[in-house]
């Protein structure tokens, strides 16, 4: 298969490594610094799923869609940060030949609302979503480390699309080194991840600590539990579902099953703040706030954490961040 990775951050390079290892042809579109390192040193994956490397001539590296060969792809995997979704959709739309007659877009992104952005610009039957709760870090521009893994990657559709189209992609990722499967209701998985990320990411960034530290303290536990309760109310108002019927059921699973495997992980929000980058808080706590406002539901705990992360983000930029 021919697969385009749009976004060469840690997730994009991690997924690319699986596809290359399986034997698919992969083109990567990323920032110039990343592309320069990939062209010079190839792609390297380390971490809990073992080491793998691909030489520069085993895949394509491009800093712009304009530089791509005039060929279509079976899949375009969007691996950008959620705050870049709109620009990514517009950019991909400018190259109408990318998807050909049957190509599909698969969103490997955090947060809620990304699929709607793409479905507003592409036919819904071409837009799929992936839930990723594997931890990736990028110590060098061309190196990705798999640090933690809580569950297999799940791929599905929020629009009732034919899931048979996702089976070849899922098989490539799975046999390339990271467990992956196609699921019938990815909405439930995405909301499970929203609950997890909204509880942990902002607090981990604000206090500059690993996930496990948050679970050890009574004070942070109480904040996370209120965040989770707010999200369940918002979900119910909009008719969304996840794998647990109540906030209490989720909270029990959160402490007993979900948090322990990732207790050593640092949130992507914290990593972004350290790197003086824009965080994905708009698609996490921000999305909950907006959904709450639409249903006239207050979300004070999510709102508080959102404002605190925005303060830290703004301070970075005031101090010269990019």
Question: Which helices and strands, and how do they pair?
Answer:
Layout: E1 2-6, H1 10-22, E2 25-29, H2 32-41, E3 43-47, E4 52-54, E5 60-62, E6 75-78, H3 85-93, E7 104-107, H4 114-119, E8 127-131, E9 134-140, E10 143-149, E11 153-156, H5 167-175, E12 180-182, H6 186-207, H7 211-216, H8 218-238, H9 247-258, H10 268-274, H11 285-294, H12 300-318
Parallel strand pairs: 1-2, 1-6, 2-5, 3-10, 6-7, 7-8, 11-12
Antiparallel strand pairs: 3-4, 8-11, 9-10
Radius of gyration: 19 Å
Examine the coordinates and then state which fold CATH places here, giving the name of the CATH topology of the largest domain: Rossmann fold
What string, H for helix and E for strand, traces the elements in order? EHEHEEEEHEHEEEEHEHHHHHHH
Helix segment count? 12
The percent range for helix content is 40-55%
